[in-house]
């Protein structure tokens, strides 16, 4: 482990490596590129072509004699015959003859106040949409629509429809869509697709297909490749591949060609359920196609599939194949490789990829650090985990929820439960979002520490924060109660699980 730690630490050092100091060592550290010089060059103002010509023209211009004012000749406007006949300065009424306007300042002030109010409320609507507060966004939107000077645009409806879909409110999205049509805003295929996507996000495929059929009856709202891709993704997520085949046939009948995004969605779906033969067929079609060639997302999908399954050789083989196809990797590609190597405890290869990223000037992202922290957390290597986290913060990289989930799991695996508490406190100070995964990590740490009272307290806080427990939550707690022989607690937990499942089904 000491050698592994040394190899990893070398890749985490800053870019200024001591090349001269390590010449006598047996294993020389690979010097990283001087990124500061590259940054200076990138942010330097480019030399404009016009500057040189401007300076040369100014130097060659004649020198004017001081004390004399050079007045340019007045250009006379020659009107065409019959154009503006008889118009002169005397033809226009003088300011003294004009009828004075009453209360001009008052009217202008009222107009400016109305504009300021509209701008303020419009900004409030954009803020609610950005923060995903769908109820508040609808209230502000209704307030705006009541004003006679405000006319909602297609883009505004689009943003609210997407927000409602992401917030689990497809019925409310449909209601807004109907209101939009009644108010005279003509629907488009994009707006219909946004409504369809709202149902797809909530696994309501029957309703989504009804909208698709409705679009087919409207000449100006015909479904396009984005409509079908959205519906295909919902079918793939639901593992209903028979519907995927029917949608492909429907697209062919309407002369709609699947794009690379569509094929990547299906490719990923087949891979997740282990249908490798179908996945290979889709990939071969992409290689033979002239309109939807594989791209870096295709590469990431394939190598991520094998990486998550721990099939390192297949992952590396496909990586080389895609490189031979001329597809260049991106930061996410390297992060997938780092994560796969980390899960298999192949720290040397993980460190090599990180050094390779530095060499090619690919930035280490939050995901990069999370993968490394997770690799050490899984084996309870608190020392290297902390070293990576400190380096992450030193480089100004912002931690996220997954970062603290990995830290909590790592300290729990190492038996350092007091550091679990400090990590939770630090997450609160940094205002890290507390989702289901975060609470599951803390509950799991309490279970490993055999502190069931604290585990129940965290579970109660989870529900108070309206964070929905999932199957992992119940599995962790049931196993903790089983070890202590608390069958009554297990029974209560199972009943609560059934109630939550029924509630979600009704919703």
What does this entry look like structurally?
By secondary structure, this protein is mostly helical. It is globular and about 65 Å long. Among the domains are: 110 residues, Tetratricopeptide repeat domain (Serine Threonine Protein Phosphatase 5, Tetratricopeptide repeat, Alpha Horseshoe), CATH 1.25.40; 53 residues, no CATH class. The chain contains 25 helices and no strands. The relative contact order is 0.04. 66% of the residues lie in helices and 0% in strands. The N terminus is likely disordered. The longest helix is centred in the N-terminal third of the chain and has 27 residues.
Any key phrases for this structure?
single chain, Serine Threonine Protein Phosphatase 5, Tetratricopeptide repeat, 66% helix, 25 helices, mainly alpha, 507 residues
CATH architecture of one domain: Alpha Horseshoe
Supply Rg.
32 Å
Shape, please?
Answer: globular
Biggest pleated-sheet summary: none
The level-1 CATH class of one domain: Mainly Alpha
Unreliable residue runs? 1-71, 74-99
pLDDT averaged residue by residue: 81
Q: Distance between the terminal alpha carbons, to the nearest Å?
A: 51 Å
Order of helices and strands: HHHHHHHHHHHHHHHHHHHHHHHHH
* Counted beta strands: 0
Q: Brief overview, please?
A:
The chain has 507 residues and is mostly helical.
Per-chain topology:
Elements: H1 2-12, H2 35-43, H3 49-60, H4 104-130, H5 134-145, H6 154-166, H7 170-182, H8 189-201, H9 205-216, H10 225-237, H11 241-253, H12 260-272, H13 276-288, H14 296-308, H15 312-324, H16 331-343, H17 347-359, H18 366-378, H19 382-394, H20 401-413, H21 417-429, H22 436-448, H23 452-464, H24 471-483, H25 487-506
Helix pairs in contact: 1-17, 4-5, 6-7, 6-8, 7-8, 8-9, 8-10, 9-10, 10-11, 10-12, 12-13, 12-14, 14-15, 14-16, 16-17, 16-18, 18-19, 18-20, 19-20, 20-21, 20-22, 22-23, 22-24, 24-25
